[in-house]
Amino acid sequence: MLKSLPISFILFISVILFLLFPSQVFSAHPKCHSQDKKVLLEIKAALNNPYHLASWNPDDDDCCTWYCLDCDLVTGRVIALTIFSGNISGQIPPAVGDLPYLQNLEFRKLTNLTGQIPSAITKLVNLRELTLSYTNLSGPIPSFLSQLKNLTYLDLSFNDLTGSIPPSLSELPNLDAIHLDRNQLTGSIPDSFGYWTGKTPEIFLSHNNLTGAVPASFGRFQSMIDLSRNKLEGDPSFLFGKNRTSWYVDLSRNLFEFDVSKIEFSDNLTHLDLNHNRIFGSLPKGLTQLNLEFYNVSYNRLCGQIPQGGELQSFDLYSYFHNRCLCGAPLPPCN
Ligand SMILES: *[C@@H]1O[C@H](CO)[C@@H](O)[C@H](O)[C@H]1NC(C)=O
Ligand SMILES: *[C@@H]1O[C@H](CO)[C@@H](O)[C@H](O)[C@H]1NC(C)=O
Ligand SMILES: *[C@@H]1O[C@H](CO)[C@@H](O)[C@H](O)[C@H]1NC(C)=O
Ligand SMILES: *[C@@H]1O[C@H](CO)[C@@H](O)[C@H](O)[C@H]1NC(C)=O
Ligand SMILES: *[C@@H]1O[C@H](CO)[C@@H](O)[C@H](O)[C@H]1NC(C)=O
Ligand SMILES: *[C@@H]1O[C@H](CO)[C@@H](O)[C@H](O)[C@H]1NC(C)=O
Ligand SMILES: *[C@@H]1O[C@H](CO)[C@@H](O)[C@H](O)[C@H]1NC(C)=O
Ligand SMILES: *[C@@H]1O[C@H](CO)[C@@H](O)[C@H](O)[C@H]1NC(C)=O
User: Fold this and answer.
1) CATH 3.80.10.10 fits domain 27-134
2) 167: cis peptide before it, omega within 30°?
3) Quick one: which of 37, 48, 104, 134 has the fewest CB in 10 Å?
4) Which H or E run includes 121?
5) Ligand 5 centroid, distance to 87 Cα (angstroms)
């Protein structure tokens, strides 16, 4: 039938169709799923219809064009909900758990967001990234987060979370990084954080009130770790070693107490912060072999000559000051 029509006629019809229905002809994505639209409007209502979500218009059929979300280009299902820096008051609506294709959920820089992390989040089995950060969320870090096996990124930093760290989080097999920093967490670091089910993620626990020693299970630890500004104690020198791949170790502002003299550092270590602890002994010569980019051993109980060479003299005296009897450049010469 089409074959018998002149090409010019087909072109003419196409142009008419395009002029009448431009969005249908050139639509880059299918319209959003009606069930997702319904859930989004529930979320908006639960947050008291904030101005930040003004684009979430019930009369607009295509919720994929709304702000703060992304749809899958093939299926039209909502795969990302990212609510960031708005004037939003209230709690995380449990309805977020009813967006079954969500891969990325983010509530960030919302200081009036309060309440606890809702268990409805565990319904999001496809979730890869969960960011609840810079909010006033309180209560514990729920152990049910360990059910989200697809998570590659978990960021709960800068909140008012309390209680201890649930050991079960180490059952998340695909995590690249876990940020629990800047909360009010107490208790000790779980043993299980030294042996993850899958790969070991980068671990950020700084600015909390964690106590106790670093578990011995970290004896094989090979990732990046920030334990700064807690109340941790004991001897975590097993975090170091010649064949470690960790490039970043921050133990600063704790109560750690150990002899640094015999420690062998890996060539991979480029960021070493030990300031404000009770570390004693003399700095080992091996430090001169490292390509250090950040280095701070100030406010400890170190003694003896600073090894000369490598990067060690590229740091100023403030990386070394307030020790018991360290001497040599960049500090004054030894007697
Ligand atoms: C938080 O809520 C209070 C009280 O309604 C309001 O005055 C303030 O502007 C809000 N802050 C932000 C960042 O939305
Ligand atoms: C946030 O919204 C509340 C009420 O909705 C309003 O009183 C307040 O001034 C707003 N704050 C900012 C920073 O816009
Ligand atoms: C949010 O937290 C800040 C600082 O932590 C606090 O000053 C503020 O009162 C809190 N706001 C609410 C609504 O809880
Ligand atoms: C992870 O996501 C994939 C597809 O996105 C899904 O097939 C799988 O069931 C999810 N894994 C779990 C443990 O839910
Ligand atoms: C740690 O606990 C002390 C009291 O023991 C408290 O004053 C401080 O605010 C807490 N710090 C954090 C980050 O929670
Ligand atoms: C590091 O090297 C020592 C011997 O030098 C070995 O016993 C140990 O198993 C190695 N550790 C890792 C994690 O490769
Ligand atoms: C340093 O890290 C690289 C990967 O970034 C790795 O291949 C290498 O084995 C590491 N070296 C040591 C001594 O761990
Ligand atoms: C090292 O830490 C001390 C104490 O916190 C600080 O005063 C100094 O500025 C730091 N040095 C560098 C290079 O960060």
Assistant:
1) yes
2) no
3) 48
4) none
5) 28
C-beta 335 within 6 A of ligand 6: no
Tens digit of each residue's pLDDT, the chain (335 residues): 444 555 555 455 554 544 444 444 445 557 889 999 999 999 999 999 999 999 999 998 899 999 999 999 899 999 999 999 999 999 999 999 999 999 999 999 999 999 999 999 999 999 999 999 999 999 999 999 999 999 999 999 999 999 999 999 999 999 999 999 999 999 999 999 999 999 999 999 999 999 999 999 999 888 999 999 999 999 999 999 998 889 999 999 999 999 999 999 999 999 999 999 999 999 999 999 999 999 999 999 999 999 999 999 999 999 999 999 999 999 999 98
For ligand 8, whether the C-beta of 21 sits within 6 Å is: no
**Predicted structure pTM score:** 0.88
Check residue 28 and report its DSSP letter.
S
Q: Please indicate whether residue 253, judged by its CB atom, sits closer than 6 Å to ligand 5.
A: no
With a 6 Å cutoff on the Cβ, whether 87 touches ligand 1 is yes
Distance of CA 218 from the midpoint of ligand 4 (Å): 29
Single-letter amino acid, residue 69: L
Whose structure tokens read 């709304």?
66
Distance 182 CA to ligand 3 centre (A): 14
Domain ranges of the chain: 27-134
